[in-house]
Amino acid sequence: MGNQTGSEIEYLARALKAPRIRDSATRLADQAREASWSHEEYLAAVLSREVSAREASGAEIRIRAAGFPARKSIEDFSFDHQPSLRRDTIAHLATGAFLAEAKNVVLLGPPGTGKTHLAIGLGIKAAHAGHRVLFATAVDWVARLQTAHQQGRLALELVKLRRYGLIVVDEVGYIPFEQDAANLFFQLVSSRYEHASLILTSNLAFARWGDVFGDQIVAAAMIDRIVHHADVLTLKGASYRLQYTGIESLPSVRAQNAAQ
Ligand SMILES: Nc1ncnc2c1ncn2[C@@H]1O[C@H](COP(=O)(O)OP(=O)(O)O)[C@@H](O)[C@H]1O
Ligand SMILES: [Mg+2]
Questions:
Q1: Where does the chain hold its CATH 3.40.50.300 domain(s)?
Q2: Residue 225: is it exposed, middle or buried by C-beta count within 10 angstroms (0-12/13-18/19+)?
């Protein structure tokens, strides 16, 4: 490539806000000459590099903005440890098809069975598929909604949150809520109903959510909307965290088993 053409490409790439094109144009031009690509093939190759790079950096930005507590991937999830869970169910969820239909995912099971891991893994997949994602614990969501409510901008906040294709609510049930919190949470669930997806995780079966929310009727109305279009997956077994510790079960697991 001539010097002048090179600097023209550099200028044009910068004007297009695609400075990476400068490098890929030179690199791919050598490859094109060697392999006798047509002009169209060369142009397609340069553009497709730019598009992939943009998609990857967009996904990375969405992953960072999501507020995941850790990076966990579906690929790192061991299905051998969770035999009741079907690989193809998770593989299908990982395609992100549920997001287009505004469907929900509920992950139930005792502590340490991989609920948060799967929620993060699916959230990362959603970010790669182009969806904006927000992750927080149920307690943090309620605090956020309470603040918005106190400032008189709850409706606005709910509209803003609807622009996120996926919201993850982790750890429903660890800490019981006040009744006004239950109402706020109900509003979050109904504002997303049939518009945008939720992933919820909980150590408690639905039957016990009424106690968590301090209101059986609000809890029932909420669960009704959540599960109307949802995959409910129940994880089982001993905590993955405890597998090499020799500890066989946690108090909450025993209490829950006894309650069933
Ligand atoms: N089946 C699994 N395969 C790989 N890692 C797992 C699996 N289940 C749990 N873990 C890991 O064990 C730890 C606890 O899992 P986590 O998802 O936080 O459990 P939960 O949210 O159900 O309490 C995490 O570090 C997670 O990555
Ligand atoms: Mg968890």
A1: 67-259
A2: middle
Q: Please give the structure tokens belonging to residue 68.
A: 């995941």
d(CA 139, CA 195): 23
**Tokens 């992750």 label which residue?**
135
Global pTM reads: 0.84
Q: Whose CA is nearest to atom 8 of ligand 1?
A: 114
Please identify every residue whose CB atom is under 5 Å from ligand 2, which is an ion: 116
Which fold, 67-259?
A: Rossmann fold (3.40.50)
Confidence band (pLDDT; 50, 70, 90) for 248? low
pLDDT by residue (tens digit) across 184-242? 999 999 999 999 999 999 999 999 999 998 889 999 999 999 999 999 999 988 788 77
pLDDT tens column, 23-51 = 999 999 999 999 999 999 999 999 999 99
Pick the closest to residue 252 from 171, 183, 135, 179 (CA basis): 171
Are 212 and 219 within 8 A, CB to CB?
yes
Q: Which ligand is nearest to the CA of 235?
A: 1
Instruction: Report the distance separating Cα 197 and Cα 98, nearest Å.
Output: 8
